[in-house]
Amino acid sequence: MPKQATQGFNGRLVFAIAAAALGSAFQHGYNTGVVNAPQKLIEEWITETEQNRTGQVVDQSKVTIIWSIAVAIFCVGGMIGGAITGIVAERFGRKGGLLLNNVLVALAAIFEGASKAAGSFEMIIIGRFFIGINSGLNAGLAPMYLAEISPVHLRGAVGTVYQLVITISILVSQILGLESILGTEDSWPILLAITVVPGIFQLATLPICPESPKYLLLSKGQEMEAQRALTWLRGSIEVHDEMDDMRNEYEAMKLVPKVTLKEMFVNATLRIPLIIAMMVMVAQQLSGINAVMFFSTKIFRMAQLDDKSAQYATLGMGAVNVFMTLVSMVIVEKAGRKTLLLIGFAGMCCTTILLTICLAYVQNAALWVSYISILLVILFVVMFAIGPGSIPWFLVSELFNQSARGAATSLAVAINWTANFIVGIGFLPLQEALGGNVFIIFTILLALFVLFVYKKVPETKNKTIEEISSMFRQISYQ
C-alpha cells in the first residue's frame, strides 16, 4: 500500500468503525431479513392465537393482513427514524445519538421475544415498529459518524462498511432462520430477540471511542476536545493539517446562518446536492433489489429446485452480496463513486431485460433457461453490490458541509425508507398482475437512473467538503 493509503489507518480507527457500524447497520440488515424464513410458522401461530381469542375459524386473508402490517411497520418506523436523524445528531451528537438509540433495541427485543409467551401478535408489531425507528436513525447517524471520523482518502472505503454490515447481517438472519437452527416453532421468538446482541456489543465498545471531531469543533465549538478526538482516532499527534481543514470549514460556516429545512429547498447551492442525494437514495430502493431478493426463492423454485435447495441458493446469493460489497469497499477509492454507480445501475438495467425474457419462457422451456435465470439473479445482486448498494449511504455526508449535513441526511434517509416501503407494499400486487413482466418497470426506472447519475452526480473522490461545496456554488451561479 502507498503511504497515503495507510496514513490515518490504524487499530483505533478500525475499532471505532466496528463499534459504530456493527451495532447499527446490523439492526438494519438483520431485521430486514429475519422475517422471511419463519413467515409460515408465525402465520400459523397468529391463526392459532386469533382462534383462541375469538373461538371462530380465522380467515387466511385476515392473517395475511396482520403479517403484512408486522413486516411493513418496520419501514414506517424507518421513515420516522430517518426524519428525526438531524435533530438527534445535532442535540446528542453522532456517537451520543447511536448510544441512546439502543433503548429502542432493548424495547424491541423484549416485545418480540415475549410475544409468543404472552400470546400477543400485537407485540411483534410494536417491536418491529421500535426496531424500525432504531434502524432509520442508524441509517442516518452511523454513515455520518463514519464519514466524519475517516481521513479524506479513506472516506469512501469506510463509508462502504455500513452497507457491508447490512449484507452480512441479512445473511446471518437467513442462516439463523434455517429449520435446523432457529427457524422452528419453539425458537422463532429467540430468532427475533437476537437483535439485542449487536446493541449490547455497541454499548460495550462505542463509549471507549471519541465523539466525531467535526461535530465537536463545528457544532459545539470545542477545539481542544476536537483535537483530542482526532489525535485518538489517528493514533498520532500530527493532526495539524486536518485540524486546519476543519477550522477553515468552521470559519466558512460562521458566515452562513444555520441551515433550516426551508433553506435546503430555497438555496440553490443546497438544493442541487439535496436533489442528487434524494434521487440516489430513491434509485437504490427502486432499482428492484428488494424485489429480486424477495423473488429469488420463487425463481429458484421455477428452475425446478426443491424447497431446501431454493433456500440454500438464496443463502448463496446473500454470500455473493457480502463478497461483492467487500470488493466495492476495496475499489471505491480507485474507481470513484460516479463510475461505480454508473456500472452498477447500467449492469442491473441490462440484467433485468434478460431476466424478463427468461421469465417469459421459463415455464415451458428447456431446463438451461431456468439456470440462466438463476445466474441473472446472482449477476443482478453483483451489480447492485458494486456501487448502488453502498455509495448512497455515505454520498449524502460527502455532499454537504457540517451546517447542512444533519438536515440533508434526515431528508435523504426518510426518502430511502419511504421508497423501501412503496416497493414492499406495491411489489406483490404488481407481480401478481404482471408476472415476470414486473421487471420491465425496473428496467425503465434503471435506465432513467443511469441517465441521472451520468448527467448530475459529481465525483467526490479525494475532495474535501469545502471543495465539493464550492463546486455546487459554481453550478448554482451558472
From TrEMBL:
Keyword annotations from UniProtKB, A to Z: Membrane, Signal, Sugar transport, Transmembrane, Transmembrane helix, Transport
Family: Belongs to the major facilitator superfamily. Sugar transporter (TC 2.A.1.1) family.
GO cellular component: membrane
Topology class, membrane: Multi-pass membrane protein
PANTHER family the record matches: FACILITATED GLUCOSE TRANSPORTER PROTEIN 1, SOLUTE CARRIER FAMILY 2
Name of this chain's protein: Solute carrier family 2, facilitated glucose transporter member 1
Gene designation: SLC2A1_5
Subcellular location(s) of the protein: Membrane
Residues passing through the membrane, by range: 65-87, 99-119, 125-146, 158-176, 188-209, 272-292, 312-332, 339-362, 368-395, 407-428, 434-454
SUPFAM superfamilies with a match to the protein in the record: MFS general substrate transporter
Residue stretches making up the Major facilitator superfamily (MFS) profile domain: 17-461
The species this protein was found in: Cryptotermes secundus
UniProt signal peptide: 1-25
GO molecular function: hexose transmembrane transporter activity
